[in-house]
Design brief:
By secondary structure, this protein is an alpha/beta fold. The protein is built from 28 helices and 22 strands. The chain has a seven-stranded parallel β-sheet with strand order 11-12-10-13-14-9-17, sandwiched between helices. Strands 3-2-6-7-1-8 form a six-stranded parallel β-sheet. Strands 21-20-19-18-22 form a five-stranded antiparallel β-sheet, with no helix packed on it. α5 packs across α8 and α18 packs across α22. The termini are far apart. The chain binds a DNA duplex through α9.
DNA sequence: GATCTGGTCGTTTTT
DNA sequence: CGACCAGATC
């Protein structure tokens, strides 16, 4: 028991206090958006330790991202000091990797197994499809990957699927064969894909009772965040870990009483909100949370409804939207922060116009004391970043795209990581294949085939075949190239035990000449690649410094499992751009949700899926509830996709928000004759965009195809300039250096803008 | 074996 | 419109 005046309880409301102190064996915390869930979870962990109900090492907490795990650890440490040392706080995937590396010999894998990301997976499946000639059947890598993933999430493995194959469906037969080959290849390469990490852990716990007993005995308190987004395999994992240990499996060194009576099941706390379930497409099963009380009889349920994040206007709008999902438990978030500002709505003519609105609003937020890092822009699909980025660059809005084309997916990064993987795990066929001729050393497809054939016929790994390259009887040049590569790999492997990941990486970059080759290139893209390589080395150096005892394998694990949200950098002065999915669990003072249009949000693809519309609505709800003070909803009347301009209609979700909560803004009209858009579908037509304010010339944001370079243009505060789109204005200030010089201009009609001078379509006007 | 080019295809969402 | 791939050419 905690004393009533414990600092762990200070400032909590009654429900939160119950959630922190409950001693129930199973506890479900239904935590509405912004209800202080993270705080409750960290205090609950701290309370378990402070009240001596648990040692830190007996705690396993599962979070959705590595970043959330890191923050939770810090907060527990802030409450208790470094007793938090032995706790496991991590994502499902990281926890599984940790178990699997420790127990590798129980399932025939090396501790240094490779984790294949979706790119690796795709490449492998593609090769297998081609080998089988199954491409003509309409089997695409993505469809095969999706089907495999779906089955794995349901804990169906290749053997289990064998009896379910539709023999009269050639498609299914081919799929089965590809899947079987895929798993065989992964085993041969000592590799696991993302889904395998969970599945294999479940299988391990089920197959080896001694191992299961060991973890059940260790983890006495298990806490799972974002429980509404767990899939069946993750659910099964939790179930396995929360089973009691029978007396005969209690280890020798355990206390007498445990050996006599066995060890009871661990306590389980799950936190979730079915209104925020947005991952059904990757197997998340909302039933896991809905049926928690049935699965864990006697469970205590705590409902957190008070919101500490947003103003009441934002909550009213969000509540109104989500209430249109039937089949949900009624829940109404409330706040004591007052109504706050109205939500701002905007209808643009194009995505460029919409982007201009976002940029303008960001600028005016900055004037009222916001920092860039307080602001986020959300969208449904990654493709929507283009228009935003284009404009942000031109108008010098510092931004960062979270997720998107991930750093670790870039060609040069994948290449170098493949070296590291091949060094750590010589069996990794995919990695060895990738580096065979990267950088170019004259080992082409023919040589590769010969090498693979040699490996397969003699039953050795591709790495081992490389060491026997002279037996292939190829030309001296190719043979020499293979011998050189082999020597490099052998030398690096010999150093794995003593050298850090950063040292090995640097050695690879130097010895392969990878950087030198890029430096000699005249392609400007290659310059960026060199920078990426240096950044990778910096990441590795930082990792090695922060984790003294960790080596190459640990580094590779870390980079394999980074989540999009992990990239978030809240110290930096940048606006964050991300998908609505990535936004889950985050909060910002000011939020922009863009592209609130039919076909986009809800996305057209969701229309055909059962429950698709409801999930899109939850997605919109998640986005809205990220905002603390300012919420902006914007759309474009037309949107160019595939180079074709399509008209778009306002999202039906806008209809669901009470009119008085939104203050609609209006873009300048390019053509007064043009009918104004009405963000309303049927029912009462909402009196949306009102009459235009003053004449506003800021609509068009045409991409300038003329190569412009104003680097030499000298500008000073007070100068008058003319801009192709915005007309004339006065320069208020010039900041920045060289190509990054920025002019702050007050335009006579278009208002205040920031412009990247180098590329701005401006000329000086004589006063 | 490397590079170029024309054609195809595609956009949900992610660990 | 642009990324990516397969086949043709040097």
């Amino acid at each position: 028991m905690l004393p009533a005046d414990s600092p762990l309880l200070s400032g909590l409301n009654e429900a939160q206090e119950r959630a922190v102190t409950s001693e129930a064996d199973s506890l479900l915390i239904v935590a509405g958006a912004g209800s202080g869930k993270t705080s409750v979870l960290t205090r609950r962990i701290a309370a378990l330790i402070a009240s001596k109900r648990s040692w830190p090492s007996q705690i396993l907490a599962i979070t959705f991202t590595n970043k959330a795990a890191g923050e939770m650890r810090e907060r527990v440490e802030a409450l208790l000091g470094d007793v938090a040392e032995g706790m496991w706080i991590s994502t499902f995937h990281s926890a599984c990797v940790r178990i699997l590396r420790t127990e590798a010999d129980h399932f025939g894998y090396s501790k240094a197994f490779t984790i294949y990301d979706s790119g690796d997976q795709r490449a492998l499946i593609k090769r297998l499809i081609r080998d089988q000639g199954a491409d003509r059947l309409g089997l695409s890598p993505s469809s095969v990957a999706a089907k495999m993933s779906r089955l794995k999430n349901e804990l169906v493995d290749v053997d289990g699927y064998r009896s379910r194959v539709q023999e009269n469906d050639p498609n299914d037969v081919a799929f089965f064969q590809i899947w079987a080959d895929y798993q065989a290849e992964l085993l041969r390469s000592q590799a696991l894909d993302f889904d395998d990490l969970i599945v294999t852990t479940v299988q391990l716990l089920r197959a080896v009772p001694e191992v299961a007993a060991q973890y059940r005995r260790r983890f006495r308190h298990i806490l799972v965040d974002e429980y509404q987004d767990t899939n069946h395999a993750q659910y099964a994992l939790i179930r396995e870990l929360t089973k009691p240990v029978p007396p005969d499996l209690v280890p020798e060194q355990a206390p007498e009483e445990q050996k006599k009576k066995g060890i009871p099941a661990a306590s389980l706390t799950v936190v979730g909100d079915s209104d925020q379930s947005i991952y059904a497409f990757r197997g998340a099963d909302i039933r896991n949370i809905v049926e928690f009380e049935r699965d864990f009889p006697g469970a205590e349920v705590v409902l957190l409804e008070q919101n500490y994040r947003s103003t009441q206007n934002i909550l009213d709008a969000a509540n109104a939207v989500i209430s249109h999902n039937f089949d949900r438990k009624a829940k109404n978030l409330f706040s004591d922060q007052g109504a706050g500002d109205p939500i701002i709505g905007f209808t643009g003519y194009s995505q460029h116009d919409e982007a201009q609105f976002v940029a303008d609003e960001i600028l005016s937020l900055m004037d009222t004391g916001y920092r860039y890092s307080d602001i986020a822009v959300f969208y449904r699909t990654n493709a929507q970043t283009r228009a935003l980025e284009e404009l942000f660059i031109r108008q010098a809005v510092p931004y960062r795209v979270i997720g998107g084309t991930k750093f670790y997916e870039r060609l040069e990064i994948k290449d170098l990581l493949a070296y590291l993987q091949a060094i750590a795990n010589p069996a990794d066929t995919l990695a060895v294949r990738r580096i065979l001729n990267t950088p170019k050393r004259g080992i082409g497809p023919a040589t590769e085939s010969a090498l693979v054939a040699h490996a397969e016929s003699t039953g050795i790994t591709l790495s081992a075949a490389l060491a026997e390259a002279e037996q292939l009887g190829l030309g001296p040049k190719v043979t020499g190239a293979m011998a050189d590569l082999n020597a490099l790999l052998a030398e690096m492997r010999a150093s794995v035990e003593r050298a850090s990941a950063a040292d090995i990486l640097s050695a690879v970059v130097d010895r392969t000449g990878y950087r030198d080759i890029l430096n000699r290139s005249d392609d400007p893209q290659d310059l960026a690649r060199v920078e990426n390589i240096d950044e990778l080395i910096a990441v590795a150096t930082e990792f090695s410094r922060g984790n003294q005892e960790a080596g190459l394998v640990e580094f590779l694990t870390e980079v394999s499992l980074v989540a999009a949200a992990d990239e978030l950098d809240d110290s930096g002065g940048t606006v964050s751009l991300m998908t609505l999915h990535t936004a889950k669990g985050l909060e910002f003072d000011a939020v922009f949700i863009t592209g609130v249009e039919e076909e986009l949000l809800p996305h057209r693809m969701s229309a055909t899926e059962p429950g698709g519309l409801a999930e899109e609505r939850r997605l919109f709800y998640v986005g809205m509830t990220r905002a603390k003070k300012k919420l902006h909803l914007s759309l474009a009347m037309s949107r160019a996709t595939f180079g074709e301009v399509m008209m778009s209609a306002p999202s039906r979700f806008l209809q669901e928000i009470p009119e008085h909560l939104i203050d609609w803004r209006e873009s300048g009209l390019p053509d007064p004759a043009l009918e104004r858009p009405r963000p309303s579908l049927s029912r009462e037509p909402a009196p949306l965009p009102r009459a235009p304010r003053e004449k506003n010339t800021s609509w068009a944001n045409r991409v300038d195809t003329v190569v412009r370079d104003n680097s030499e243009l000298e500008l000073l505060a007070g100068d008058r300039i003319r801009h192709d789109d915005f007309g004339e204005g006065t320069v208020n200030a010039v900041t920045g250096q060289g190509p990054k010089r920025v002019a702050e201009v007050a335009f006579d009609e278009a208002g205040k803008k920031r412009l990247l001078i180098k590329i701005a379509p401006i000329t000086k006007v004589d006063a």
